[in-house]
Here is the input.
Amino acid sequence: MESILLKDKVRGLEGYFAAGGYKPLKKALALKPAEIIEEVKKSGLRGRGGAGFPTGLKWSFIPKDAEGPRYLVCNADEGEPGTFKDRELILKNPHALIEGMAIAGYAIGAAHGYIYIRGEFTAEAALLETAIADARAKGFIGRNILGSGFNFELFVHRGAGAYICGEETALLESLEGFKGQPRLKPPFPAVKGLFGSPTVINNVETLAAVPAIMERGGAWYAVIGAGKSAGTKLFCVSGPVNKPGVYELPLGVPLRDLLEKSCGGLKAGKKLKAVIPGGSSTPVLTAAEALAVNLDYESLTAAGSMLGSGAVIVIDESQCMVKLLQVLARFYHHESCGQCTPCREGCGWIEKLLNRLEDGRGTVKDIDTLYSVADGMMGRTICPLADAMAMPVMSFVKKFRSEFEAHAAGRCCPSEAPGKH
Amino acid sequence: MPKLTIDGKTIEVAKGATLLEAAQQLGVYIPRYCYHPKLSVSGNCRMCMVEVKKAPKLVTACSTEAAEGMIVRTDTENVKNARRDVLEFLLINHPLDCPICDQAGECGLQDYYMEYSRAKSRFPQEEKVRRGKRRAVGPHLMLDNERCVLCTRCVRFCSEVTKTSELEVMERADHSYIDLKEGRALDNGYSLNIADICPVGAFTSRDFRFKQRVWFLKKTPTVCLGCATGCLTEVHHNENTVHRIVPRPNAETNTWLCDHGRMAYRAVQAGDRLAKGVIKNGLIDLEPALREVASRIDENHASAAVLGSPWLSVEDNAALARLAADALKTENFCFDFKAEQGIKDGILINQDPAPNTAGAALIRAGRGGLTLEEFARRVADGRIKVIVTEARAAAFIKDAVKAAGARLIVFATNKAEIPAGAYATLPYACYFETPGTFVNYQGLKRRAAPAVEAREGVKPLWAMVNKLAVYSGTSLRLDCAEDALKGIEF
Here is the structure.
């Protein structure tokens, strides 16, 4: 299967041209914006940031009669533990993103686009700046693009290191210069987003898929993948596999194939225990569940988890689930924005409970408390960060309770020597 | 006009009304911390979550707009669990120092815990997040970060009402805390409202702290006399001592109260409070003082005059008008005070610092009298030699009195009010101790009600006027404050 996003030798403008780059933009500019949105709808492209919302539909939510500016924002604040696909995509194929944004901007009537990139991505931000300058020099960005009369300015904005700014409304707050905290919805960004204007926010991977859809048609893209999960997806695999990394595969690929064919299987002597299939916030799957599941939105939902960002975290038998969850809890405790009561207080409480269990001070009662604290956070906050903490906690405790009980009984997990990590 | 059902009761509400507002109209109380009717909706405390039929999750009543046909429940197990969970989350890192907390008795955590939770703590004391304790953050406020529930009412108050934005939430997660922005202090003139709207003991009034447990306080509704705005207030007092003043929110005038108005009560109990007369600089018992004043008036009968005061109630001004017309039998009296009226800071404080300029105008309308300019002219040219007035009103004719060396006889409540060069001062009961009517800048008549009793021997001004008239040989027959009002359109 050919790659649509991760291609070689397209980083520079020359290579991108050679691969047919910026032809889709020219094609798009000859169409009416509504026709582009229709084409994207037809393609079945869904948001690759984690929620999987249909992209064409999202674009069509921009009110047609709204006065004033509209904005296009690219969410490149890739911070979910285990996720490193957008970074790879930007490094390999920055012009696909830039071209995708120009097309999307034209489709929604935006004259300004922002790429909100994670602060730590210094090299990627610099690369994007260069790529945008190159594109501008050739007239793909700026005033009167390719003589069409369409103006589109593109800016790179670097974040300041908060995970929460990956949440789209917190991202907007941050982009406006405020403390990054999610906004109450409604109003949704499509109605009242950046600077109070209608705004579309898309993930890097989503936008980068747009040029190919323009070039080859929505119908072509829709056939790739599995049913409602159309197209290809970047999967970033981490853990004890032979070849961890980012792989572009059609949606619906069996998780087993990703691990065994693409990643060359687990390292010698390692036995699969569990897989977190879509980034640290998605519920964990046991080895048996993981090896039976296909990687698409519907199959993973049916398996009780989520496709999320496509970050596949592989966990082998030598790893302690309590320790692992403790690491996650420390992350979410640190990154909770502190706005909503359940998340602000709950994340810290969860970390403390896990610290007790890890240090051998925990009791069986603490395990039940752990579960019920997570349950009390679930679905009760402005943004999904509380859920992102609660889901792994609940699934870890449910599926690997014996390891938690071993900790509560003063031992470490069965797979390890007693009292040691 | 969407029609919806809350707990089985149907109501039609205005478009844009939230579920919380709709429930309020139905008399269904939904607990809340961050919601405040006069501040923007923040939705962060998650206490007001309710169940909406067909919605996948609980929704916050404060932020969800009522829609046609919505079926809302506030009494399901799911809602009760959510409230209990939020209270548990709020309390895990709370210091539980209620015995030494001034908020105890009017605390949102205490009240809701008793109403909605009563669960035992599952959190070990030693793992609580510690934050800063009592710290002065301005002339009137103390901040205890450990008690804070981070509802951000204070932050929003400073950015939306006073527009001074002194406060911000610092840090993230459970290490978040409210703090002043660098180099700032909470001295915006309305800071004590923050102590009121803070649902817990995080912000407390430095003035009120440790003076009184709130459950001992008795409450008297009255009006603020700090300026012509005439905010409705409530005086909190116990055992004949005033402890604090809080606003009585109303649609016409005020939700809030300025710090100046709140501190006005301090004069009532101040050390310089007058219970006796003053002749020149010497304190003297009331009866000899009255005799002395009466004889000074009598010896200059033809040139004695009365100047009313915009700081006095309509009734007391009316009594002064009677003194002029029926005891002194002079035309030399004046109830003519002009002052620019209107809110000067966009919030509450009036351009006119006197509370009853409009009330004095009613006396002038009913009794006539000189203009203030004419009155001052007559003082300056010696036609008026003795003036009976109220201490602060004497400032209106200060220059003329000084130039002509006229004798000033003033009524005052506190020694600090006495104008320089006053010949005699007579004490009277202030409006925390005696009733009175005031007319604010909007023309609204508002009643000051007594919260405490005046010190022994200290009488309302109208009664002092009555006595003074008797001493100079006339009876005004004033038996109550209203007796002087006859003939005044009121």
Q: What stands out?
A: The mean pLDDT of chain A is 95. Chain A touches chain B at residues 162, 164, 179, 184, 333-349, 352, 369, 376, 379-382 (CB under 8 Å). Residues 341-358 of chain A form the longest helix (18 residues). The first strand of chain A starts at residue 71 and ends at 76.
